[in-house]
Amino acid sequence: YRALYRLVREHMDEIASVSARSGVVPAFANVKPSTWKPPRRFEDGDDAALANVTPESIAIDRLIDAAEATHSDSLVVIKDKKVIVERYFGQKREPIGDGEPHRIETMSVTKSFASLAIGFLLADKKIPSLDAPLSRWFPDFAKDPKKAKITLRHVLTHTTGIDHKPTATVMNHAEDRLAYVRALPVVDEPGTRFSYNNEATQLLSEVIAKSAGKPIDVYLDEKLFKPLGIRDWSWERDKKGNVETYAGLALGARDLAKIGEMLLARGRYEDREILPESWVATSTGPSRPTARPSRATP
Prior knowledge:
- By secondary structure, this protein is mainly alpha-helical.
- It contains twelve helices and seven strands.
């Protein structure tokens, strides 16, 4: 049985391809999703799990292996509003609050939350447009010919042209990261070259704080976290009190999955509007310049 399972797993792609061409459906494909169990249990000695092997469960098994091999913090898979996989890697799972695992440092996923904050501010008409110049929030930028051309859209698409390092290590040591970024020169014409830029993204901390009248962590707690029932989270600040918008947000894996569900549902969660429908329906992502990427940071 173990040998059969491994054989099926290794050749699942070929089996699926032949099945698609011939119209012959393997018998194990008829198992209902409600009976899914991670097939890795079978390798641990549970022979009964063989009855639950499906193409989908083998794919999930591969996903679990890949998540572990790439040193992921966790893996949560939700199907039809049910959690079918929840795994944690490399950390002890201890309850916090109502039993959720430890918070996960989201690293650069924090940038996506900064983008969501911008979306809320656009919907509330507290920001006029993505093409608003940064000099609206940083008046000194108007005095520099290149910085005067930088727009909010450029920040969100990593095309500001602001000088940056391959990683955020240098900026991480700055006591005032906002002041550090504001002093950096513009080395490329804004809007012409994509280059992943932690430094420029930190400018969103000030943009959001000035536009919302409160820092991003407080703002998103009101607009996003509380409406979704997310209670346990943390957000890093530098020594001057600036909230990090390039990294620094930490929250539970299930809460991250919950936000993913909301985004897939175009801003709705459990029949409630979280992101304004008018903004979601009319929002079109800005195109990326065709210039070659440079110094991208994982």
